[in-house]
From TrEMBL, chain A:
Residues 77-289 form the ABC transmembrane type-1 domain. This is Sugar ABC transporter permease. It comes from the Bacteria. The keyword Ubl conjugation does not apply. The keyword Metal-binding does not apply. The chain crosses the membrane at residues 15-35, 81-102, 114-134, 163-184, 221-243, 263-288. Belongs to the binding-protein-dependent transport system permease family. InterPro entries: ABC_transporter_permease (IPR051393), MetI-like (IPR000515), MetI-like_sf (IPR035906). It is found in: Cell membrane. It comes from Actinomadura graeca. Keywords: Cell membrane, Membrane, Transmembrane, Transmembrane helix, Transport.
TrEMBL record, chain B:
The lineage of its organism: Bacteria, Bacillati, Actinomycetota, Actinomycetes, Streptosporangiales. Residues 94-284 form the ABC transmembrane type-1 domain. This is Carbohydrate ABC transporter permease. PROSITE patterns: ABC_TM1. It comes from Actinomadura graeca. It holds the Pfam family BPD_transp_1.
Length: 296, 298
């Protein structure tokens, strides 16, 4: 046996083993991700007779033009963008400050770390139910605290202007632990000498943060921002538990819209079209994000 | 963010003592701030815990105006817990949650480890294309795919079964990505050495690959456990059998009670659902940090 055929045999064995190792993932991904995705795409392009439910004609964009004309859909699109924007703008800076603080090992930082981790362990339903109670406008603990401090009462979830932010704050409270841990992992990779050199050069703390820590954490920032974006886009359980999309449609996002179209109005075509729009939005945002962070 | 003062060379003890004192006050001020922030972060959980021992009426009445009773039950009662385990079958629902979560975590570990190793350590044609195709799944928000997923589950006869609840979530693109990164970040020399010793592919995987990715596996356990434990929307739709329903769904039902939500029971159930996960998260957080650092995130 020459070396070449032995190598070839090993390579073939490697390919076969790889195939076997990938088989479970492949079957699962096809069944539970690609099939539903294909189904959503085809449903979104299908016209259905409203009475017989039979498909009519070939593929068309009717469902898309229908939802685009729907003010509720436009509101849901705007709300989705708001959820994503507020989540990223709150979660990433807060997680970064927490990680840097916790990393300094001051007394009290262990308690802080444990508190953030504990919030992470509360499920979406638990978080939504407990915070609903806290936000309660008539007898909630947040308003009674404001009253005790002689500050004006807030409507929170009953206000069109505050409900979306209130839901996002709950979601960030739960979600900030993961980016914090990602940043802690990133901080461990930064050699201490870098900071010592900065100190010797007399670089101030703020400049150290912006010019040394943040650039060196970029790989972690990219991952954390991506995950933060996805979690902001996927808020659903809190909406259905806390506000049911209200008041006046101010908290419904694309997922909630799609769910309502399907389960309340049996409008499966528009529901699928809304899901596709959601998907495209995520892809576009991710590409944009990757570009921005890479070009910096 | 305060930085320790550069004291420089100190000739006499007096300024040194002063600097030390100043440093100490700065540090204690920081600790006070940190403790306050920690308390605020923990507040919803602490309040949930203390409210679990109040009746529904007390939860509502004690909150306004703000007194010590708002935070601590004046007359602690076990009635909520008792009701949970008698009329509301919370024990059964809790066990259901545990079954589907453990199964989801275990299956995710197996699937992601095998796929991650193949993508990260083996050479074969079309590897990168397949990997990209897997990653595409990360963009598909499961919540937006519930209707077609319902169709798939129906065809496979998975509706109202335990596997129907956890299977759709066990093939996580993120998990496969994380395992691939972790396997790739291991030093090549050990793999070369195993090859020279004549170890086959599977033996190399078992003895060289797996021991190196323990932190990544632990962080997957944490993430997937939190995700599966949180799962609400899918079981709400795909599980029609009340005997197998998960606790997150049944608990949300306590809020839809006829006249007032069952606040006492909600807080008691929330506490029982949160406490085990808090311990799990506190135990596994170190590994998550290490897993994130070791996977290099390059």
């Amino acid at each position: 046996m020459t070396a070449k055929t032995a190598r070839g045999g090993r390579r073939r064995r490697e390919a076969i083993t790889a195939g076997l190792m990938l088989a479970p993932a492949f079957i699962g991904v096809v069944l539970f991700q690609y099939l539903p995705l294909a189904d959503v795409l085809s449903t979104s392009l299908r016209r259905v007779d409203p009475f017989t439910r039979a498909p009519v004609g070939g593929p068309s964009l009717t469902n898309y033009s229908e939802i685009l004309a729907d003010p509720d859909f436009r509101r849901a699109l705007l709300n989705t963008a708001l959820y994503i924007a507020i989540t990223i703008c709150l979660e990433i800076p807060v997680a970064l400050i927490l990680a840097i603080t916790v990393n300094q090992r001051l007394p009290g930082s262990r308690a802080l770390r444990a508190a953030v981790i504990a919030a992470m362990a509360a499920s979406e339903t638990v978080g939504a139910l407990v915070w609903s109670q806290m936000y309660e406008s008539a007898f909630g603990i947040l308003n009674s605290t404001l009253a005790a401090l002689h500050l004006p009462q807030q409507p929170f979830l009953t206000s069109e202007h505050q409900a979306l932010a209130a839901i996002t704050v709950m979601s960030v409270w739960r979600g900030v632990g993961l980016p914090m841990l990602i940043f802690l992992g990133g901080l461990q990779l930064i050699p201490q000498e870098v900071y010592e050199a900065a100190k010797v050069d007399g670089v101030g703390p703020l400049r150290t943060l912006l010019q040394i820590t943040v650039p060196l954490l970029k790989p972690s920032l990219v991952v954390a921002a991506f995950m933060s974006m996805l979690s902001g886009a996927r808020i659903f359980t809190p909406i259905s538990v806390m506000t049911d999309g209200g008041p006046n449609g101010s908290t419904g996002n694309l997922i909630y819209y799609s769910y309502q179209q399907a389960f309340s109005f049996q409008a499966f075509g528009p529901a699928a079209a809304a899901a596709v729009v959601m998907l495209l939005l995520l892809v576009v945002l991710s590409v944009a994000q990757a570009r921005i962070l890479r070009s910096e | 963010m305060l930085v320790k003062h550069e004291t420089g060379a100190i000739r006499t003890a007096v300024p040194a003592a002063r600097a030390r004192r100043r440093r100490r006050t700065a540090r204690s001020a920081q600790s006070v701030v940190l403790s306050v922030v920690a308390f605020l972060f923990a507040f919803p959980i602490l309040w949930m815990f203390t409210s679990a021992f109040k009746g529904t009426k007390a939860v509502v009445e004690d909150a306004f105006p703000l007194t010590w009773k708002s935070f601590v039950p004046a007359h602690p009662t076990m009635a909520n817990l008792a009701r949970l385990f008698t009329d509301l079958h919370f024990g059964r629902d809790f066990v259901n949650t545990l079954i589907v979560s453990v199964a989801q975590v275990a299956l995710t570990l197996v699937v992601a480890t095998l796929a991650g190793y193949a993508f990260g350590r083996l050479r074969f044609r079309g590897r990168d294309v397949l990997f990209a195709a897997t990653l595409l799944g990360a963009f598909v928000p499961v919540e937006a795919m519930v209707i077609p997923m319902y169709g798939v589950a129906k065809h496979l006869g998975l509706l109202s079964t335990y596997p129907g609840i956890f299977l759709p979530f066990a093939f996580s693109p993120f998990a496969i990505y994380l395992m691939r990164q972790s396997f790739r970040s291991l030093p090549d020399e050990t793999f070369e050495a195993a090859k020279l010793d004549g170890a086959g592919i599977l033996r190399t995987f078992w003895h060289v690959g797996l021991p190196g990715v323990i932190p990544a596996l632990a962080s997957l356990v944490l993430i997937q456990f939190i995700n599966s434990w949180s799962n609400f929307f899918w079981p709400l739709i795909a599980m029609q059998d009340p005997a197998k329903q998960v606790a997150q769904v049944t608990m949300a039902g306590y809020a839809d009670n006829a006249n007032t939500p069952l606040y006492g029971e909600i807080f008691a159930a929330s506490t029982l659902l949160t406490v085990p996960l808090v311990f799990l998260a506190l135990g596994l957080q170190r590994y998550y940090v290490a897993g994130m650092a070791s996977s290099g995130l390059k």
